[in-house]
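As a warm-up, study this chain.
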Amino acid sequence: MGMTQKPADQEPNHQKPKSIRFVLVIAGLLFVILAALVFMISENQARQSNTGFPSFDQSEFTLIDQDGVTRTNSDFAGKPIALFLGFTYCPDVCPTTLLALAGAVDDLVEQGIDASVIQTIFISVDHERDTPAQLKSYLSLFDVEATGLTGDEQAVSDAIRAFGGYAKKIETGDGNFVYDHSAAVYLYRSDGTFKGTIVFNEPAEFIVEKLRTLL
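Now compare it with the structure written out below.
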């Protein structure tokens, strides 16, 4: 008797694992390329927005740090800067931003890059509650070297204006209040020129690369 031949659809398909691996490799490459394109577009937009943006030494302020010491913009000259506006009672944007910056610095250190020269500056928009002591207590909760700055209403208002920022007090109806404020991190090179921004919830790998460009 002759042997019965198996239907073609019952033959073992040894090509499927290879095909799946090929698809996964292609998908991975496409993701990397897409991420690179998005980063390039983001950087290009940041460079275009830099036109006419004042350098750090032109953005004058006089505020008090978390140790009660009077600080001006000249105190931070000569080293790269990552600066943002916020307040210690902020429920989401501010702690998320601090954690993101801390994580990016840690990633750079793991890559053998000394990111300790980057000065993280946190300017409070809440002159009523954010005393130097409150700032010091708040910043101690995060694994990042940061300078917290506060002051009276006029000094804080002048600082916000100097950096082209925005802050608006919002009453919550229960006797408390929050602030709607600029959420971007402003980046400055060592010579004080404006480099660009980190937007809120930007991918971690983008933040790492942007900080790397300051070094």
